[in-house]
Each structure stands twice: as structure tokens, then as C-alpha cells.
Amino acid sequence: MKNKLLNLILIIIFTFFFIHFLKDITQDILKIKTPLDYLGNVNEDLSSFSSLIKILFNITAYLSFIGEAILILIIPIYLFYKKKKYLLKSIWIITSLIMIYFLIAIFLDPKINIYLNKRSSNTFSRYIVDGHMYHLLVARNPIQWTKGLMYYKNKDELNGADGMIFIFPNKEIKSFWNKNTFMDLDIYWMNGETVVGKSYLPSILKSGTIVTISSLVEVDRVVEIVK
After folding, report:
1. Where are the chain's structural domains?
2. DSSP per position, the chain
């Protein structure tokens, strides 16, 4: 009974660290947005700290990452060390899951997949906002609304677009934040074609912490213009 309970606890620990290990690689190393990001993310901007603190933080982060990798290897070995057949199968399954996850994540990220990047470069449209003509990427569904302009490092990566327009089916109070946003943005709150408000959203690098802004009235369109 004790062995079964211990094995169950180890399986739960393995599952937690395995998922966190995958999230660390795609979120922190490859900078790819995946569904695992919804499990949470700690703001790791250290721009206001000294060089020594940054070095110590990075060392700790790398050691934590290595520790997760070691646990992912050790736990299956412990569970199946008397059954080499199951041990080999578990290692093969773990390796396959990691490879499949990375391939899917990389394929779905237009910043890495050149083919998708070329396709996405042609998806912007012209819009007149506050009397000015802009070329804007269009976000029409929940996935595109969630991603927005996250992870783009500079305007050159937008392939000629000036920003993004979010088109929503209903008028609501909308909120935007600068998590994983590396460019300063002017935010236009709109009812149809009419601008009803304007806000400024600094990059996460400039603010040093996550900033959230909201529309003062219900809107059905929001435009982000790169400053």
C-alpha cells in the first residue's frame, strides 16, 4: 500500500514538472506562445535590479530548469528500474511527447515558421483611425485576440503593418495588458468606425511590471498602433 501511494505521488510530481518543463522551454527560451501559457507566468523583468541580482537570478533559473530535467529522467527510472521493458517504453513516450509538442509549437508560431510568417504578412487591411490611414493586422477570433502583438520585438517583424485591429462581436468594456509586449502602443477604443477614447500602453521592458488599461465605455473595436 505504501509503495502504491508513493508511486502515485511520484506520478503527480512527474506530471507537474513535465508540464512546467515544456512551458519553460517554449515560453522563456523559444518565446513561443502555446496553450500552456494559460497556466500562468511570473513577470521576470529585472531591468530595475543590479547586474549581480540579474546574474544570480539567471543562475537560479538555469539550475531550476536543469533540476526539472533531472527529475523527469529520475522518476521513471525509479518507478520502472525493475522492469526495463516499461522503462524503455516510458522514456520513448516522454521523448516522443516532447518532440511532438515542440514541432507543433514551432509550426504554429509565425515568427519561426517562415511559411506561416509569409502568409500572415498579407493578412493586414487598411483602416482609417482618427483621421489617419493605417495598415493593420486583423484579429477576429479568441486566439488572435489573446495573442495580439505579444512577442513581437520591433515593427519590422510586422511585415509592413502599423499595428493591429481587434474586431469583437459585441460591445463591452475591454481591457488590455502589456504582458510579453515589447513595443510601446497607442490604444484606440472604438465604436464601429468612431474613436471614443485613446490610451497609452508602455512595453513591459519600459514599465518593468504588468500594466492593464481599460476602455471607459463599451467598445467593439480596439486598435493598437506601434509608436
Report:
1. 2-108, 115-226
2. -HHHHHHHHHHHHHHHHHHHHHHIIIIIIS----GGGGG-------TTS-HHHHHHHHHHHHHHHHHHHHHHHHHHHHHHTT-HHHHHHHHHHHHHHHHHHHHHHHHH-TTT-HHHHHHHTT-EEEEEETTEEEEEEEE-SHHHHHHTTTT--SGGGGTT--EEEEEEEEEE--EEE-TT--S-EEEEEEETTEEEEEEEE--HHHHSS--EEE-SS-EEEEEEEE-
For the domain 115-226, what is the CATH code?
A: 2.60.120.1140
51-60 long-range contacts (CB < 8 A, ≥24 apart) are none
User: Per-residue confidence of the chain (227 residues) as pLDDT tens digits?
Assistant: 667 888 888 889 988 888 888 887 777 666 666 667 666 555 455 555 677 877 887 788 788 888 888 888 889 888 887 777 788 888 888 888 888 877 777 666 655 554 444 444 446 788 889 888 899 999 988 888 988 999 898 888 888 899 999 999 999 999 999 999 999 999 999 999 899 999 999 999 999 999 999 999 999 999 999 98
Residues forming beta bridges with residue 213, ordered by sequence position: 176
The set of cell numbers assigned to 134 is 493605417
Beta-strand relationship, 185-191 and 219-226: antiparallel
27: region left, alpha or beta (phi > 0 left; psi from -120 to 50 alpha)? alpha
Entry pTM = 0.50
CA distance 2 to 166: 55
